[in-house]
């Protein structure tokens, strides 16, 4: 079974307050984008519970620390799952705020559910995903949503960027999510993002922001420059995604990836 776990972008991100469990309550809009990894599972005749291999962008961690193996392990301990070969082709940059690892984990849960007919409900899969990371539950339904709590409490929103183009840029800066959260000053927004997002996209530039930019841009001016460049290139809306370090621009017409970014990960698509 082969599937293609996709990335997400955050359209606005308010860090509202620090919680007693050490996490933060946030407000954000998750929007899926068609930048994907490849994830394959197949029957195995080996003794081990799984055999993991990977290709594409190298992640220098032990197999057991790879979140797809953690997802497999979580389900293996609860359900009757036979030994499985797992292959991950990594194409989504990590440390980028694109939720690539979280998506891989959520897709692993959905794929095991389908392949081994576990008959898990959406809520059961979301609950399992939530044990692996705050971003993971979103990728179970994988539809644009307004998210609150740790980023795992969802309500529907009507937002459709089909027809727009996205240009995504990730320079050679790696930002870890825990480190990013440790540098923020939470605050209650004046107006909820859920309300602001109903404004026409042309107005978002002056209304909708990612709070992580306040703490990350001063230490990494290159990122702020890229955001400004995206606007200078004609983006209707531009922002950092999640805890960074990728930035995206939403364009009416197909943008070009400028020569100055040739050393960066640069990807564009129609939404
Ligand atoms: C910032 C966001 C925005 O979508 O995404 P990324 O930039 O990672 O893609 C998410 O909140 C990231 O979610 P995720 O990457 O799943 O984080 P987790 O593994 O659950 O948590 C890693 C660490 O980040 C901090 N954390 C995470 C989520 C949250 N709501 N509050 C937090 O304070 C905690 O210190 C936690 O130990
Ligand atoms: N399958 C995976 N894909 C990406 N990163 C993974 C994976 N498994 C574990 N990781 C670890 O998780 C960290 C964050 O991954 P990711 O979810 O892509 O972050 P972000 O959303 O912040 O870009 C990486 O630095 C990496 O060490």
From TrEMBL:
One Pfam family cited in the UniProt record for this chain: GHMP_kinases_C
Molecular function in Gene Ontology: 4-(cytidine 5'-diphospho)-2-C-methyl-D-erythritol kinase activity; ATP binding
EC number: 2.7.1.148
Residue numbers binding ATP: 93-103
Record-annotated active site: 8, 135
Residues passing through the membrane, by range: none
Domain GHMP kinase C-terminal: 195-254
Pathway note: Isoprenoid biosynthesis; isopentenyl diphosphate biosynthesis via DXP pathway; isopentenyl diphosphate from 1-deoxy-D-xylulose 5-phosphate: step 3/6
Reactions this protein catalyses: 4-CDP-2-C-methyl-D-erythritol + ATP = 4-CDP-2-C-methyl-D-erythritol 2-phosphate + ADP + H(+)
InterPro entries noted in UniProt: GHMP_kinase_C_dom (IPR013750), GHMP_kinase_C_sf (IPR036554), GHMP_kinase_N_dom (IPR006204), IspE (IPR004424), Ribosomal_Su5_D2-typ_SF (IPR020568), Ribsml_uS5_D2-typ_fold_subgr (IPR014721)
GO biological process, one term: terpenoid biosynthetic process
Record-annotated GHMP kinase N-terminal domain positions: 66-140
Taxonomic superkingdom: Bacteria
Record PANTHER family: 4-DIPHOSPHOCYTIDYL-2-C-METHYL-D-ERYTHRITOL KINASE, CHLOROPLASTIC
Function comment: Catalyzes the phosphorylation of the position 2 hydroxy group of 4-diphosphocytidyl-2C-methyl-D-erythritol.
Similarity-based family: Belongs to the GHMP kinase family. IspE subfamily.
Name the record gives this protein: 4-diphosphocytidyl-2-C-methyl-D-erythritol kinase
Provenance organism: Labilibaculum euxinus
Gene: ispE
